[in-house]
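Quick log. Single chain, no ligands specified.
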Amino acid sequence: GTSLEIIPESTTGYSVFTRNSSSGNGGAIFAKENSTVYLENTLFIDNVAHDYGGAIYMYGSNDEGDVDLTITNAVFSGNIASEGKGGAIYSLINKVQRTNSVLENNQAKTNGNGSNGNGRGGAIDATDNTTDSHGSMFITNSEFTGNQAEGQGGAIYTNSASTPFFVDINIDENYEDDNGVAYYHDNVADN
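-> predicted structure:
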């Protein structure tokens, strides 16, 4: 598989992805099957994807147990999926870990009314299209503010077979539209 690791040279530095665009998926980063992406101290600002993942598009998982996308100390602001899903991040069948992140003013838009499935997950759309889930999402110490979805899930949308885990997150109260803060579709938790 392929591995991408982005870490600044100093602990006070940041890597910046700003005003990147894609006519397809992933405004700043596009990663597919058997890819591992590790991001530390990164800023994703005003990136645009025509389809899915305004800043990051991830599809396909690695070996069971391996994390596909790790994000630590990051800001995602003003990213747009203009006719798709996941204003900041779109993840399909991935294991995702996010720590110490701010997701603000990201948008998932659609030219339709959202019934085509687009416009979901203002900040994140984490989807697993299999019944034998290989994907998972762990989000800790993160903040969601002012994200918008023209479909479902103002901050987060998931229809994964595995339940996402949220620890110590802050979500603003401005998600009255978009079917609420987070929209979970067909989730099942095993005991």
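Residues 184-191 have pLDDT under 50 and may be disordered.
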